[in-house]
Design brief:
The complex is a heterodimer of chains A (247) and B (170). With 247 residues, chain A is an all-alpha fold. Chain A contains 12 helices and no strands. Chain B is α+β, with helices and mostly antiparallel strands and 170 residues long. The mean pLDDT of chain B is 89. The chains are: A mainly alpha (247), B alpha+beta (170).
Amino acid sequence: MPDNIQTGLQRLRATSAWRSIFRSGAGDSNLHKAQAVQQNVFLHLFSVKVRSRVLDFGPTWYLGAFTLVTFVVLLATGILLMFYYHPSAPQAYADMKDPQFAVSSGVFLRNLHRWSAHTMVFLVFAHMFKVFYRGAYRPPRQFNWVIGVFLLLCTLLLSYTGYLLPWDQLAFWAVTVGSNIAKAVPLMGDKIRFLMLGGHEVNANALLRFYVLHCVILPLAAVVLIAVHFWRIRKDGGLYIPERKDA
Amino acid sequence: MSDTRQDAPVASGPEAGEGCKDCSRRKFFSQLGLGSLVLAGAGSGLFTYEYFSPNVLFEASPVVKAGKPDQFPSDSVTLDARAGIYVVNSDAGFYALGAICTHLGCLTAWKPDLDRVACPCHGSQFNRKGEKIAGPAPDPLPWYEVSLNDDGYLMVDRSNILKTPKYFKV
């Protein structure tokens, strides 16, 4: 880096405004670096230090990180798609179809959302298989496995609720079948289906319910659970890596 | 438990014992507080449940007008996809079957060449009396009450499932 940029950065990091945001201040010592992580609300979910072996491809295949990437892509594209979508029975199908032709990048964003959703479901399963077969779910990480199971549920429910929103034949019959599966719950099956659909048939009420679940409730739940999931990695002693055999 | 714990905070006081003046009162109030929280929680649960169960629905009436009897050729099975029913004109008389598969709620179709009702979703099949022939469906298709209104239309009451087959003669 040229010297004038370097000194400019140093001067910026010395200003009181910068210091009020980043308390750790300028400095390259290990303490400063640790504080920069520890004192940041987002970064403090993660460990200040990890073993370099943990960052290798082998132990994790980065499946959890890739899952997060798809989730972030889904958030970004999903919010953009919301600007053109009305969750109402007469409009929903056209609002799904029109942006593919009448909006710049519409078809790209919709397909990115769709493919990321499929990929996320695949990666979540892959991540869980990897964790399971490596035994990384065992104590002290057993609670994080449970959080992960709830995240799996969130992912599947997000997939399922998003499936209805195009409001085409595929969506309609998938949700008809899905809500009838929910009806098979003993004793309260009918009530569960009624609450799910906001009525006895898949109609405008159901579309609106699935929309709110898909765009607000389930993503919020997922974000909270993801935060806990990451924080627990640190609290449970970092990512699982088996002891070296040759050591 | 000793009643002279030096390190206990002042407010916590002695635990249950003969010298404890406050204990029954404290227990009463903590239980009162917990009880009211439980009550408020249950109330919120009920409130939420009631809110999410609409009291008025703008759904189709269970009684549908199927058509005039002479619209249905003799020995025919006619699907009304909108109402989800079959109107069957048989030698014994008219009857109406539910067209919604009893497995997972898909709309079935009448296949004249097979002489069967078939579901596209998971392959259940029924004969023209609604009895299951194949597939995962757990129940036969329901028979609905058929009547004639004053204008001469066949009316099918989808909320009235007949326990035994009944043919309607016009």
